[in-house]
Amino acid sequence: MSNSPTAQRAAVIGLGSMGAGMAGALLRAGFQVSACDVNRQAVARFAANGGQAAANPAAAAEGADVVVCVVVNAAQTEAVLFGPGGAAETMRAGAVFVSSATMDPAIARRLAARLEETGRHYLDAPMSGGAARAATGELTFLASGTKAAFDAARPALDAMAGKLYELGDAAGQGAAFKMINQLLAGVHIAAASEAMSFAAKQGLDLRKVYEVITASAGNSWMFENRMPHVLEGDYSPKSAVDIFVKDLGIVQDMARAEKYPVPVAAAALQMFLMASGSGMGRDDDASVARLYAQVAGVTLPSPKA
After folding, report:
1. Has 178 been annotated as catalytic?
2. Distance of alpha carbon 286 from its chain centroid, rounded?
3. Rg (alpha carbons) of the chain, rounded to whole number
4. 68-95 pLDDT, tens digit each
5. Which of 178, 238, 259, 304 is catalytic?
6. pLDDT of 260-303, one tens digit each?
7. Which residue range forms the structural domain that includes residue 104?
8. b or e along 187-205 (b: 16 or more beta carbons within 10 Å of the residue's beta carbon)?
9. Are 243 and 98 in the same domain?
């Protein structure tokens, strides 16, 4: 998407692998972008690339037309908005808060109602696509909110999104769609890890396994995307194990509230929990394969020297 922005001031809260790419996409689209992060090095890199460094969400959001929040969870999102030095204090009237954290839909609805009482808009807009697509402005957004929220956010979304799904007129619907995606993503990573480690147990050439499976019916996007990490023995986090501990935990909470069984997602959650408990929580989520390998006594590829 390449429409010229009509709103020129943007703030990005959170400059991790996703937020840094999103902030860069906004800069390239002509926005004046102010950003903050608890990681001072990330803020310094952003400032070196033409952005404006801010000390906290309130400073970043001052006078902003759109505030894009790219933090880990609902608790951090609430703190960004309403905690000390929160963005809700300084966003201009009529500005929109674009919430991209994965969270329970009920919490998204609560945060939206609270912010809208102040005369600002809330767009429930979790995203998918990974750091590479964030950097090129080609993310997929699963968004819901009022027409006014969409209108206010559209120039920024045009800069950051390859696909924008408008999924309803109320916050929470985007979050619910994202949780369906995360259920499948977590299950697929766990299944891919199980299959690759099982292949190692059979003494198969893992690179040939990858070649065959990615050309066969058993392939999945997660197998194709994550198993190269196993082949290279590189578990530096693109998406960490603990992300799926959180997200599949939200799936469990939602399902329990609805008395809906999710046994496959529950099994996947246990694998991520065991990987995290084994000290791999901050490592790449493909580390579930390492857990299987430890249990089975098999050897996976080591990092290249």
Report:
1. yes
2. 16
3. 20
4. 999 999 999 999 999 999 999 999 999 9
5. 178
6. 999 999 999 999 999 999 999 999 999 999 999 999 999 999 98
7. 9-170
8. bbbbbbbbbbbebbeeeee
9. no
